[in-house]
């Protein structure tokens, strides 16, 4: 992390003419104009309407899945209770077979639960990637409007003047231009 910050500082120093050779070259030619834009990607990804809509879709799906799992869990608990009640009436072998069958059901339930959570996570990642793809041209356009040579994430910068922080402008433009993304939890087929 420290080496990354040193590299960023070195690049900024180089671009802004902190080295004597570059300062001399700039004074004899046209002055180099560099504008650095700063974005708070964490804020952008939490404040965008399309991301908030995506989170609402995901929560709705997660809640529905949780309700289904609660019902399944209740059914499994009832089945376990019945098996325990039958223990005195069954032979040891019959009881053992019922326990084995029940344990298989519990294992299948847990696998289904894990698979559902993986599918939800994969769907969220896929949807966020689609949003990011839509974001790049908009961010590039705002960079060009401001004449920014490059943009840094605010977490990589110690101090930022308000004029170069393009976060609010980017959020406003993205909220107007981004299309909603449908949250899909179907497992993705790999080729």
Q: What gap, in angstroms, lies between the N and C termini?
A: 36 Å
Helix fraction, binned, reads over 70%
- What's the tally of helices? 6
Main beta sheet strand tally, sense and closure: 2 strands, parallel
Question: Which blocks of ≥5 consecutive residues have pLDDT under 50?
Answer: 2-27
What name does the CATH topology carry? Answer: Protein Binding, DinI Protein, Chain A
Spell out the helices and strands N to C: HHEHHHEH
Q: From the alpha carbons, calculate the radius of gyration and give it in angstroms.
A: 28 Å
Beta strand %: 5-15%
Would you identify the CATH architecture? 2-Layer Sandwich
The number of E-state strands comes to 2
Spatial order of the strands forming the largest sheet: 1-2
Query: What's the CATH class, please?
Result: Alpha Beta
Q: In total, how many domains does the architecture comprise?
A: 1
Shape: rod-shaped
Overall mean pLDDT score?
A: 80
> What structural category characterises the helix and strand content?
mainly alpha
Would you kindly provide a written description of the structure presented here, covering whatever features stand out?
- By secondary structure, the protein is mostly helical.
- The protein is built from 6 helices and 2 strands.
- The protein has helices at residues 2-15, 20-28, 41-47, 49-86, 92-146, 167-177, and strands at 35-39, 148-153.
- A two-stranded parallel sheet has the order 1-2.
- The chain is rod-shaped and about 90 Å long.
- It starts with a helix and ends in a 14-residue tail after the last helix.
């Amino acid at each position: 992390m420290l080496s990354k910050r040193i590299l960023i500082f070195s690049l900024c120093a180089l671009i802004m003419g902190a080295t004597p050779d570059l300062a001399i070259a700039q004074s004899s030619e046209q002055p180099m104009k560099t504008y650095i834009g700063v974005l708070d990607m964490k804020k952008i990804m939490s404040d965008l309407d399309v991301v908030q809509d995506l989170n609402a879709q995901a929560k709705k799906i997660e809640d529905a899945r949780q309700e289904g799992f609660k019902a399944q869990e209740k059914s499994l608990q009832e089945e376990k209770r019945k098996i325990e009640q039958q223990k005195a009436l069954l032979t040891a072998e019959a009881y053992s077979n019922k326990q084995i069958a029940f344990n298989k059901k519990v294992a299948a339930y847990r696998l289904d639960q894990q698979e559902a959570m993986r599918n939800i996570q994969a769907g969220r990642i896929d949807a966020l990637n689609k949003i990011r793809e839509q974001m790049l041209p908009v961010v590039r356009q705002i960079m060009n409007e401001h004449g920014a040579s490059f943009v840094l994430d605010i977490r990589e910068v110690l101090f930022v003047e308000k004029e170069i922080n393009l976060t609010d402008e980017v959020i406003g433009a993205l909220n107007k231009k981004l299309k909603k993304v449908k949250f899909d939890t179907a497992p993705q087929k790999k080729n």
